[in-house]
Write a structure and sequence with these properties.
Number of strands: 8
Low-confidence stretches: 154-168
CATH topology of one domain: SH3 type barrels
Structural class: alpha+beta
Shape: elongated
Strand content: 25-35%
Helix content: 10-25%
Strand order of the largest sheet: 4-3-2-1-5
CATH class of one domain: Mainly Beta
Order of helices and strands: HEEEEEEEEH
Mean pLDDT: 76
Largest sheet: 5 strands, antiparallel
Radius of gyration: 39 Å
């Protein structure tokens, strides 16, 4: 038997080689683009390893302590030199203290760092600023409210909310 071999004409063979080269080029370009895209991809943020610089721990100033404001960065010029009283405090993440200070002659309180305050040594009592009366609202199952006043000296009182609003 005679073997028949079919030879592709040169023109067809050339076209198929060009097509193969184009396909190969597309594959290479695709790989290159994919590689570039992977390089540009933003990795999810890792938890911060930046350590918060902790300073030497400082004992907090007591509530109701009288203080004078010193010149420090971040302290408004209009409060430097004024006296005031500490009404609140919070410890920051770096271990330092920040205070809510009510200053003489000003209607607002200022949040000031420990380094900006110089204690005078005088500490007032809570009763010097507050009457000692606390209010508590009690709500029953029906939704009616009752005001309950507490006095540190005794003599707790209760009054119905409707009665108080009628008087006012």
């Amino acid at each position: 038997m005679a073997q028949t071999t079919t030879k592709k004409p040169d023109k067809i063979r050339a076209r198929s080689q060009v097509a193969k080269k184009k396909l190969e080029a597309r594959r290479i370009v695709g790989l290159r683009l994919a590689s570039q895209a992977l390089k540009r991809r933003v990795e999810p943020k890792k938890p911060s390893t930046k350590k918060i610089r902790k300073r030497k721990p400082v004992a907090p100033l007591p509530f109701y302590a009288e203080v004078h404001v010193k010149q420090r960065s971040g302290v408004p010029d209009e409060v430097v030199g004024l006296g005031g009283v500490i009404f609140g405090r919070a410890q920051l993440r770096n271990g330092q203290w920040s205070y809510s200070v009510s200053l003489q002659g000003l209607a607002e309180s200022y949040a000031l760092p420990h380094a900006a305050l110089e204690p005078t040594g005088e500490v007032f009592q809570r009763s010097d600023f507050y009457k000692g009366e606390a209010v508590k609202i009690l709500v029953d199952d029906g939704g009616a409210g009752t005001v309950e006043r507490h006095s540190p000296l005794g003599g707790d009182e209760q009054a119905n909310v409707e009665e108080e609003t009628a008087e006012a």
